[in-house]
Amino acid sequence: MTDPAEAQPTLDVSRTQALVLLAVGIVLAVVLQGFRARSLTIPTHDDAISYLAATGHQGKYEEDRPSERWAPAREWKSYWRFDRFWCFRTIGRDLARYDIHPPLYFWLLHVWIALVGVKLIAGPILNIVLNVLSSIVLYRAGRALRRSRGASAAAAVLWILSDTPMAASVETRQYCLLGLTVVTLCLALVRFVEGSKRSDYPLLSVVALCGLLTHYQFIVLLGISATAAAILLAVRRNYRRLVGKIVALGISAAAFVAMHPHFLLSFSRQRDQVEPFAWSNLPDRIERCAVAFLNLFAPDTFAWRAVQHRFVPTVALAAVAVAALWCLLGILRSLSRHRPLTPWLPVVVFFSTLAAIWTLYVFQRLPGHAMQTKYLMLFSPTAYLVVGQVLDCPIRWRRAVWVAVGVLVVGQAAISCRTTRQFVKSSRVECAELREVTAPLVVDTAARGILPVVLWHVQDDVPVYAESQKALLVRLPDKIEALPGFLYVSDLRYENSADKREAILKKFAEKGYPAQQAATGMFGFADVYVLKKKGPR
């Protein structure tokens, strides 16, 4: 890795050329992410929860949904339909009580769906806008770090075409907003350390507040980056700015508590999701960390295939360790030569945040699913700021660097096109059958992340009885004997199981409704059974 303080502007181009490259990359990314968004046919588990939260109905769904009775599908659907505006306090309170996320993204989504409506494509389109803003800010951050226009534009294009923002764009969740707050924080801190404008104080405070209100893991990155910036200010003996930074972040923390006072409830729910520590889980978690590192720069499928070779995780983790050591030596070298340290800021932030989150994950202080592609938005923007610095290598390699950058950009675009094609092909879930359903539905779960997925395409007049398998085993739906038939939709997540499902089907058979399986894995997860009443013999 080249010392960013010593690197020459190898990729320096005109402003127009850099903006053209950036614009072309953004347009291609928008088109690909748009294709992904249009291919969606059902919401995911997390999408369903997001729409419940953003419409202000999450608490009502948990406390006042139709229980132990038949209800038309429209009554269930009313919980994820937009019927009132400006319920920000309700959204925040319900998230604190029933979720593990802060409210900023859901407030933003609330405003967005007020304009465009609750549609499958609503959340992804908002995410695409956030990704575009992130790539522009990433370019600006590269320039603020004194990188060349060509390197800054190439890094921004490589980032927006990479697998992490591509995957996060189709999830109606806060990860694209997290990426925007991360890269904007880096830009704000660089400007704060390098500049002297009074406007730097409110910018830093607002960005820190937005990050805290977006994702709780932002606290780790904020603490690391703020500490690194404080050290830089102390080295320069700029104590006035140092005190100002502390005050600005203190104001952010106070504003966060004022705007989301019940956040500690979410921390309690988060602790409940953490698995008990077990040494046997360590190899799998270490492997997932290696996959996550590769996934920052390569598609998820490639990363998983790579780690099937035992040497790859070792090489990947060793590469991280060597790069971190090289950065440490580079910082010491810059100190000894009295060179600027600010260009090292994103490098330190990236490796330190990566190490901190990996430590929490490996030692099982985070849930097992917390290393999926979309969660990498906490690291991804700073990783590509580092890439931009690496691209500005010594002047004697100018031609080789131009060739390498061209290959990287074209290769990243080709890979993104290929993975988008695969995503579009795999996301076409068959759900036309339920659009034509008129028979009553018995669903063996009322989980907020599952029932909306099942009922998304069901006609409003269809009667629905939704309870857990445990409740159905205690009490079957009332007046069921009067029905000529119905559909039983079964999902095995949460407390449900295959054994309980068989017991429920047996109870239905005893009532005169033998089951015939109609579909397996509908919506990607549910099994559907047709139950018709036996005729008289």
Can you give a write-up of this model?
The protein is mainly α. It contains 24 helices and six strands. It has helices at 15-38, 45-54, 58-64, 73-77, 88-98, 104-116, 122-144, 149-160, 163-169, 175-194, 200-212, 218-235, 239-259, 263-273, 282-295, 300-307, 311-336, 345-362, 380-391, 398-426, 432-435, 451-455, 469-474, 498-510; strands at 71-72, 441-443, 463-466, 485-490, 515-522, 526-532. Strands 1-3-2-4-6-5 form a six-stranded mixed beta sheet. A hairpin with a 3-residue loop joins strand 5 and strand 6 (526-532). Helix 1 (15-38) packs parallel to helix 8, helix 11 runs parallel beside helix 13 and helix 15 (282-295) packs across helix 16 (300-307). The longest helix has 29 residues, at 398-426. The N and C termini lie far apart (82 Å).
SSE blueprint:
Layout: H1 15-38, H2 45-54, H3 58-64, E1 71-72, H4 73-77, H5 88-98, H6 104-116, H7 122-144, H8 149-160, H9 163-169, H10 175-194, H11 200-212, H12 218-235, H13 239-259, H14 263-273, H15 282-295, H16 300-307, H17 311-336, H18 345-362, H19 380-391, H20 398-426, H21 432-435, E2 441-443, H22 451-455, E3 463-466, H23 469-474, E4 485-490, H24 498-510, E5 515-522, E6 526-532
Parallel strand pairs: 2-3, 2-4
Antiparallel strand pairs: 1-3, 4-6, 5-6
